Each structure stands twice: as structure tokens, then as C-alpha cells.
């Protein structure tokens, strides 16, 4: 597996993970980091409270190496609406949003499918009033649920989210207001930081996510230090994908594999912070359900995404190639 991961010693805490098995292979999926770990323990399958440091010490396994009929995890963007307009957004703003009843139907199909983890994204998922209902449908079916948010509304919704989701991932593009707001708009940094503090205060496992580009590479160390200062458990650096609106930036902003790896390898990692690089190779074959209720899948190089079919039953999620990683 090409993912780079570093974990330092931390106090033992228990979090919710998803566990699965294929033949003799047992594995644990972490909704916070998006990583899947191989385990030899005979653990019960489904949602499980496990010591986070013990899971982090397990070897990772790429989802594509597992003999599964459906993905380990999917990203579901139940809306395209967003209060920000980021120039590197991966979402397709032209798709039609389904109504609330159809969103609940999609949640039920995902829950029945055997997928272990669902990341609720967008658009901006915290704009949805029925977000809690969607999460409850998924968790009651045995899935672990994370939310990827720009953080603008996180402070006011953190208390409710603490009883609804298993992890929150907050998108940042800089370690201070000037650099972050350049990408996401005035005031967005302070709102996101306040949201992270609130999520941590309410006991939600929280990490920062940064799209690793030429313009953001220089702030990588400061982002890790910021995560430690805010009490977030980790940082995921997402190697830029030339998908969606980001295609116009790829020529100037996309790093080579070697540049991305060197950026993460050279970091000084504080205690209690986990750092991951999600490479383009990892993202190849990853499954996305967009607001129109259709299944989309990254091509093997994650340079394009293709729509497959409407999600009407669990078989519509069937893998036709190597599974990808969030």
C-alpha cells in the first residue's frame, strides 16, 4: 500500500471502528483516517469500540487487496449546495439534488450493501437538516460514518454531531487565515478553527484534511502543528486529483508523486497526531455516490471519474475493478 502513515505514542482512547472479514483475512476500517488495517484478532464483525492506538499500530492493507464484492468505503455527497466556492472542488455542481425521501432511500441502500464506512460530504453536508437522520440510518445498519466539512457551521452543530457520527474531517488549505481564506473565502479559517475546537470539546474524533498542492505544500509542517494545538487527532494530506473544478488548476498546482511523498516524509510529527498521505494511486477505483443518487467511480489513475448507474439496490455498488481508498 502506498499510503504513508506516522503515528506517535498517545494515551489510549477507545473509538468506533468498522470490522470485516474476507475468508481468513480480518480487517478494521478507521472512519477518521480512512485507512483499513489488517488484524489477527478474532473480533466481532460490524461496529466495534476498540483502542485507537492499538488499531493505529496494525499494518495497513489497501482495500483493493481484499476479496470483496462491494467497496470497503464510499463517499456520499447528498447535496451539491455549499456556502463556499473552492476552485479545487471535486464535486460536480451540475448534478440534480434528490429530495429528502430519496436521500433516506439512498442511506438505506448503502446500509444494506455491506459497505463498512460512509463519508458524508458535498457540497457542504452541514447544510442538511436531515443529516442526523441519514447518519442514524447508516449507523443502525452497522456502518461507521464520518462527515467531511468546510467547518463553517461546525461550531453550532458539534454538540448534535457528537451523538450522530463517528468522526469529522475538516478541510483546511492553510495554517492561518491569509493562506486558507485565499482558497475558501474571507472568514472561513476562523470559522473552521472554531468548529474544530468545538468538535474536539464534544469528544468527536477530528482530523484536518488539506489538498496537497504547490501552493499549500509549504504549510505542511504548520498544518501538523496546528492539528496538535487544536487537539485534532491527525492530518490527512490529499494528493490533488484533477477531477471536477480542480482540472483547471492541475497544470500549475499538481505535485508529482515524489514531491508529495517527500513533503510528508520530511515532517516533524508531534505526539498524539497521525499523519497520512492519500496518494492518487490510493484513490484509483474509489467509489462516490453523488447528489443525483448515481454511483460514480474514479478510474485506476484517479485522473477521471465515471458515472456508472443509479443506486437503486446494493448490487449497483458492485466492484468491477480494484477498490480505492478515501
Structure, briefly:
With 326 residues, the chain is α/β, with parallel strands linked by helices. 26% of the residues lie in helices and 24% in strands. Strand 6, helix 2 (100-112) and strand 7 form a beta-alpha-beta unit.
Q: How would you explain this protein's 3D organization?
A:
The chain has 326 residues and is an alpha/beta fold. The chain has helices at 52-56, 100-112, 131-140, 154-161, 177-184, 188-201, 220-230, 250-253, 257-265, 280-283, and strands spanning 4-7, 14-22, 25-29, 36-39, 46-51, 73-76, 117-120, 144-149, 167-171, 206-212, 234-239, 274-278, 287-289, 294-298, 305-310. Helix 4 (154-161) links the parallel strand 8 and strand 9. The longest helix is centred in the middle third of the chain and has 14 residues, at 188-201. The protein is globular and about 45 Å long.
Question: Which SSEs are present, and which pair or pack?
Answer:
Elements: E1 4-7, E2 14-22, E3 25-29, E4 36-39, E5 46-51, H1 52-56, E6 73-76, H2 100-112, E7 117-120, H3 131-140, E8 144-149, H4 154-161, E9 167-171, H5 177-184, H6 188-201, E10 206-212, H7 220-230, E11 234-239, H8 250-253, H9 257-265, E12 274-278, H10 280-283, E13 287-289, E14 294-298, E15 305-310
Parallel strand pairs: 6-7, 6-13, 7-8, 8-9, 9-10, 10-11, 11-12
Antiparallel strand pairs: 1-12, 2-3, 2-5, 3-4, 13-14, 14-15
The biggest beta sheet is recorded as: 11 strands, mixed
The best one-word shape is globular
Instruction: Please state the structural category.
Output: alpha/beta
**C-alpha end-to-end distance:** 13 Å
Task: Report strand order across the widest sheet.
Answer: 1-12-11-10-9-8-7-6-13-14-15
What integer value in Å does the Rg equal? 18 Å
Number of helices: 10
Q: Quick check: average pLDDT?
A: 90
Beta-strand content: 15-25%
Number of strands: 15
Question: pLDDT below 50 for ≥5 consecutive residues: which ranges?
Answer: 1-11
What are the secondary-structure elements, in order, as H or E?
A: EEEEEHEHEHEHEHHEHEHHEHEEE
**Helix-residue proportion:** 25-40%
Amino acid at each position: 500500500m502506498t499510503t504513508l502513515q506516522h503515528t506517535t505514542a498517545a494515551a489510549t482512547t477507545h473509538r468506533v471502528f468498522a470490522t470485516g472479514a474476507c475468508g481468513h483475512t480480518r480487517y478494521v476500517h478507521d472512519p477518521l483516517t480512512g485507512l483499513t488495517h489488517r488484524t489477527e484478532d478474532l473480533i466481532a464483525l460490524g461496529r466495534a469500540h476498540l483502542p485507537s492506538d492499538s488499531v493505529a499500530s496494525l499494518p495497513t492493507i489497501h482495500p483493493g487487496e481484499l476479496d470483496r464484492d462491494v467497496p470497503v468505503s464510499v463517499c456520499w455527497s447528498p447535496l451539491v449546495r455549499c456556502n463556499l466556492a473552492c476552485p479545487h472542488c471535486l464535486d460536480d455542481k451540475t448534478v440534480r439534488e434528490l429530495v429528502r425521501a430519496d436521500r433516506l432511500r439512498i442511506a438505506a441502500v448503502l446500509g444494506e450493501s455491506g459497505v463498512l464506512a460512509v463519508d458524508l460530504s458535498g457540497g457542504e453536508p452541514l447544510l442538511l437538516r436531515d443529516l442526523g437522520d441519514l447518519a442514524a440510518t447508516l449507523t443502525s445498519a452497522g456502518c461507521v460514518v464520518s462527515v467531511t466539512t468546510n467547518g463553517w457551521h461546525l461550531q453550532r452543530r458539534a454538540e448534535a454531531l457528537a451523538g450522530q457520527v463517528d468522526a469529522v474531517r475538516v478541510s483546511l488549505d492553510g495554517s492561518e487565515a491569509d493562506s486558507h481564506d485565499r482558497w475558501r473565502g474571507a472568514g472561513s479559517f476562523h470559522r473552521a478553527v472554531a468548529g474544530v475546537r468545538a468538535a474536539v470539546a464534544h469528544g468527536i474524533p477530528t482530523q484536518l484534511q488539506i489538498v496537497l498542492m504547490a501552493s499549500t505544500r509549504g504549510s505542511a509542517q504548520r498544518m501538523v502543528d496546528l492539528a496538535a494545538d487544536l487537539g485534532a487527532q491527525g492530518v490527512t494530506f490529499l494528493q490533488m486529483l484533477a477531477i471536477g473544478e480542480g482540472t483547471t488548476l492541475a497544470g500549475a498546482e499538481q505535485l508529482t508523486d515524489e514531491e508529495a511523498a517527500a513533503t510528508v516524509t520530511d515532517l516533524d510529527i508531534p505526539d498524539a497526531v497521525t499523519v497520512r498521505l492519500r496518494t492518487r494511486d490510493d484513490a484509483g477505483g474509489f467509489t462516490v455516490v453523488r447528489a443525483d443518487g448515481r454511483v460514480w467511480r474514479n478510474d485506476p489513475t484517479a485522473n477521471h471519474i465515471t458515472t456508472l448507474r443509479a443506486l437503486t439496490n446494493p448490487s449497483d455498488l458492485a466492484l468491477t475493478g480494484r477498490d480505492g481508498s478515501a
